[in-house]
């Protein structure tokens, strides 16, 4: 059937605008003015984005199955102890889905690319908050349960998630209406300072992760004696932590493609490995949390902070609302850009140029 469909052609790095360039990826680029249909068809041809899409799209259904199982098999709405698990699993569904959609439709235009990844960043920061909510409920070591830090943990995690989204969005184009608007894109900092932009994005996602995992790091690496919650679950936490750091390493270093540009354009480049390690890490994280939830339930219900709407569902809703406002603010200048200018820049839709369109 697919043999009867004309698949979109792919391009080299010199044939697409700079905003679409990926570090050390030479070929396999889609047309920078692809239609939505072309983007969907590209799922079934080998481009440098194909495996980026599938490595997150398929796991979305696995996490969705886990979420539906929890909702149907447990009395979720009557048992507030289960709420953090539902929020976490929801965030596990959203972040790979947002990522796969961003990678699928990011070649529709330069403006669409930025907006797609704004949503991707928002989903990742929501996942970081989902992790914090579930760590607060089930993972905190016995010594720290009900401590001052425990009481401040969720509010700080909400702030971190919001700052993370803002910082990651800022790393692409700068401040909306000040550094870019519908008339001109100064392209600070991504195109003018790509290394600074990359560092900013790494920090935007690394620091919420490190903060969220403070209680876990203390529990598995530093805590000794009574109250350390030393149980069989810790091996799953070790697996998750190892994969999380490997994920961050791959995202920051662009290995292995940086060692042999052009050799890993389609299969084996760092972003694909980053996706795979991230999903495996999330899987081990989920398994560890489920085990902690079961084995520590009675003790936590007696000694831990009560799980309420405000420190679980309410915190998640606040994060979603504020993240959407941030994404809208960063997207408005791009959405209000005159269509005629972009058409002029993309004149001759079948031709591509390495020159960046100033209105994109």
Automatic annotation (TrEMBL):
Binding site for Zn(2+): 103, 271, 275
Parts of the chain that traverse the membrane: 60-77, 83-105, 117-138, 313-335
Location(s), subcellular: Membrane
Keyword Ion transport in record: no
Main location: membrane
Gene Ontology cellular component list: membrane
One annotated GO molecular function: signaling receptor activity
Protein's membrane topology: Multi-pass membrane protein
Presence of the UniProt keyword Repressor in the record: no
Keywords: Membrane, Metal-binding, Receptor, Transmembrane, Transmembrane helix, Zinc
Similarity remark: Belongs to the ADIPOR family.
Protein's UniProt name: Membrane progestin receptor gamma isoform X1
């Amino acid at each position: 059937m697919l043999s009867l469909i004309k698949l979109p052609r792919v391009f080299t790095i010199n044939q697409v605008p700079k905003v679409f360039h990926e570090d050390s990826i030479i070929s396999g680029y889609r047309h920078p003015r692809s239609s939505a249909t072309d983007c969907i068809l590209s799922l079934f041809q080998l481009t440098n984005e194909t495996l980026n899409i599938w490595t997150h799209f398929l796991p979305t259904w696995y996490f969705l199955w886990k979420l539906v199982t929890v909702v149907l098999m447990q009395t979720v709405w009557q048992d507030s102890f289960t709420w953090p698990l539902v929020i976490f699993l929801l965030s596990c569904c959203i972040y790979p889905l947002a990522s796969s959609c961003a990678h699928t439709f990011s070649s529709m235009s330069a403006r669409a690319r930025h907006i797609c990844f704004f949503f991707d960043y928002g989903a990742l920061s929501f996942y970081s908050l989902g992790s914090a909510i579930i760590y607060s409920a089930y993972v905190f070591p016995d010594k720290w349960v009900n401590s001052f830090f425990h009481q401040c943990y969720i509010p700080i995690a909400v702030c971190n998630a919001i700052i993370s989204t803002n910082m990651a969005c800022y790393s692409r184009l700068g401040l909306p209406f000040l550094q870019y608007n519908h008339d001109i894109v100064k392209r600070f900092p991504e195109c003018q300072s790509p290394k600074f932009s990359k560092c900013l994005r790494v920090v935007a996602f690394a620091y919420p992760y490190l903060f969220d995992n403070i209680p876990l790091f203390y529990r598995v690496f530093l805590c000794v004696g009574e109250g350390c919650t030393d149980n069989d679950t810790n091996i799953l936490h070790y697996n998750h932590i190892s994969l999380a750091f490997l994920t961050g390493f791959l995202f920051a270093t662009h290995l292995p493609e940086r060692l042999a540009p052009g050799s890993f354009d389609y299969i084996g480049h760092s972003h694909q490995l980053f996706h795979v390690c991230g999903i495996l890490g999330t899987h081990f994280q989920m398994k560890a949390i489920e085990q902690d939830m079961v084995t520590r339930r009675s003790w936590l219900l007696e000694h831990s902070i009560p799980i309420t709407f405000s420190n679980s569902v309410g915190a998640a809703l606040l994060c979603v609302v504020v993240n959407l406002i941030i994404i809208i603010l960063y997207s408005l200048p791009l959405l209000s850009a005159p269509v005629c200018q972009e058409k002029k820049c993309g004149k001759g839709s079948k031709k591509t140029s390495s020159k960046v369109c100033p209105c994109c």
